[in-house]
Amino acid sequence: MRPKISVIVSLYRGERYLERFLQNIVQQKWFDDIEFVIDHNEPSEAELTMLKEFERAHPGRLKHLVRERVVPYGSSWNRCIREASSDIVAIWNVDDVRTPDSLWRQAQPILADEADLVFGNHIEVGGHGKTEGRRVQIASTPPYLYSRSMVFGPFFMFRKSLCEKAGYVDEQLRASADYDLAIRLSFHARVKALDVDLGYYLMERKGLSTRANTRRFVEDTVIGLRYGNYDQLYYESIPKALRYEIRKIKCDGQWLHVSQYVPDYQLELRKRVVGSMAKGPLNYVRLQAFRYRKTVARIEGS
Question: What is the pTM of this model?
Answer without folding.
Answer: 0.89
